[in-house]
Amino acid sequence: MIEKELVVIGGGPAGLSAAKTALEAGMKVVIIERSFALGGQLLKQTHKFFGSESEYARTRGIDIAKILVSEIENSDVEIMLNATVVGLYKDNILTVYQDHKYMKIKAKAIIVATGASEKFLAFENNDLPGIYGAGAVQTLMNIHGVLPGKEVVMVGSGNIGLIVSYQLIQAGVKVKALVEAASRIGGYAVHASKLRRLGVPILTNTTVRKAFGNGKVEGVEIVKLDENWQEISGTEDQIACDSVCISVGLSPMHQLLSMAEAEMTYVNELGGLVPLKSCDYETSLPHVYACGDVTGIEEASSAMVEGKIAGLMAAKHAGFVHPNYEKLEAELNEQLCILRQGPCGEKIRCGLKKVGAVYD
Amino acid sequence: MRVKEHPILRFAERDELHFTFNGKIMIGYQGDTIAAALVDNGVMEFSRSVRNNRPRGFYCAIGNCGSCNMTLNGIRDTKTCLTLLEEGMIVESEKDRVIIND
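Structure tokens for the assembled complex are given below, as produced in the milestone run.
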């Protein structure tokens, strides 16, 4: 059994930020990351962020990842790459799989920052090769410079659907249509307008009925929906394409917390099953904290702030009080309030109330 | 198929790497994951569904879905989307992933 002080599961925006404040407080930190690089999904975000200066607004996600890594790389942080946490147990023991070997780690404190996974959509032949998660296509083209195909149909008009559509066009792919089941576009109008100017049809009240193709996708059949989300017969239409991107939301990666039997609850506004947490970001399991998308789907900006708070708190409860604890705590909570204010933050505010997070 | 021109990203020239997929010689580049190189080489079918033997493609790219698991240098169930390509790798799709006894 390997013993560690603080294990951070996940090296994305939340995990890296959590590691930063915990390190500053004097804790010994290990970051365990499944991929071959730190940065999480920031690594494929070529667009500039909104929000305030403190969360790197007007900076591209790929550059934010570099900043977050540079902030911890001169510390004595231990980074395990290509390492997957496959088990989390009530007594703060983790099973880690790396290099074809399993190892057990016992940690004084654990911060779960596992992020989210893409939701899927039920329709006939939805498993045909050529049907991808929108995020997968973003990884493929923005990290590896590989294109999924020549002609794409995007399903879902949230910010990911809108942004990935735009990035597909930037990379030289034709976006034949963007299909949205709701009557309104889900994401920000500024992203939708960019697509409209480029001539991409945005079809609201429309869903994919089925995909067709022999061994790979060759097209989709779409259909109009009425106000009760029922298909309107006679409105079927076909669009030829060699790729379909599914962008119908994200779900928190709750599996490790569920496995350890942390108290969980299903909150639609937060994207699915999330842990109950105290205002110190501690789950129902003592010394197990959670931050970022695993506690509710939001933006990377809030994941970074949440991470910093979780790092502060995990350190404090382990006896390591950050030299600027009080100032930081106040500032970070203030930043979160600002990020979540206004009509765009209503859904998340409503969801967070249901998990016990104090929110005014 | 690779991105040819991009307004934001620059993809530097990288060394070619040779590997085989189901016995066929393919070319990828330093820094590619195995899965990215396979997509670039036009591979659509990454695996087969367990029960109905339906073709499955690349899907999530970040190690969640398992659709791209393959045998790498004889070791089964390697996530090709999270494994960087190396010269001489032997990559094989798995036709017999699970046996179901109904």
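The helical segments of chain B are 34-40. The interface with chain A takes residues 1-9, 11, 31-33, 36-37, 39-40, 44-46, 49, 54-65, 75, 81-84 of chain B (CB under 8 Å). Further analysis is deferred to the final report.
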